[in-house]
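INFO batch 0412 | record 1 of 1 | parsing
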Amino acid sequence: MADRDVPPGWSHNPSRFSRRLPVLVLALAACGLATYLTLYQVGAVADVWEPCFGNGSKRVLKESAIARYLPIPDASLGALAYLVEAVLEAAGGDDRWRRRPGIVLLLGLTAAGIAVGSALLVITQAVFVRAFCTLCLVSAACSFVIAAAVVEEVRAAWQQWKRATAGGRSAWHALWGPDQQAVAGSGPAR
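INFO prediction complete | emitting tokens
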């Protein structure tokens, strides 16, 4: 691995695809799980697997105020969010923390948003619905693990963005434009 692949002051590259692959797989699995829950909510699947809480899944997914009053199934929002997370996790090469920190920072915002949404849904299940959905809790756990797993790469991308803007690059180009040193091979970043 070239020295450029490792953020300054770091001993490893947080954007290596081998480090991102488990998060990508988990995001796709969570997307599949949320899609299954969506199919239950729209009636395409007659019953949902519930090994722990009796009729908890039915109460959470079909009878709760959230399930009844949203114009679309809430699980479909989760499926879409996990799909976006997976796409962002797959986007870019091993040097994306440096060349495209905007992708990594967007991934961090997405992961944080999903984790906060999951926490709110778990609280809603406990406080308002007074029932739990096993697969919903598994989905929430996935979101918490993903959020924790992306923190390191987000930190490297944030540090790179701060260095680039301190060096005179516009905030926008520092997020989305290519690292001029990587493109040209030498010279100041703009």
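INFO post-check: Residues 182-190 have pLDDT under 50 and may be disordered.
INFO record closed
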